[in-house]
Amino acid sequence: MTGATYNADQLLDAILTSLDDDKAEEVVKINLRGKSEMGDWMVIANGRSTRQVSAMAEKLVARMKEKFGVLSKVEGKDVGDWVLIDTGDVIVHIFRPEVREFYQLEKMWMPGADTAAV
Asked: What CATH number does the domain located at 8-117 have?
């Protein structure tokens, strides 16, 4: 599918599949349409360790490049506590559980019914 056109929902589905394949935990998707200009979706997920968080991020970036030709911006992969992946249409946060609990990112974006655990 490289070079083909895609939409945000197709990208979201591929991201959720990638995270599922890599055993991400507590995955939540948040619809940002009409709420933010930064993207259409936000995905938040946990990894069990810094190694798993970094590996999930690395694989996700590679899969999005291979499948859609998307060059993602990545922050935090070297540390592995919290990795931010910006694909343009979907913003992905992968945390270690303790770091996710500390920042409580979902609470800033929880519009109620528009937030769905996957």
From this structure: 3.30.460.10
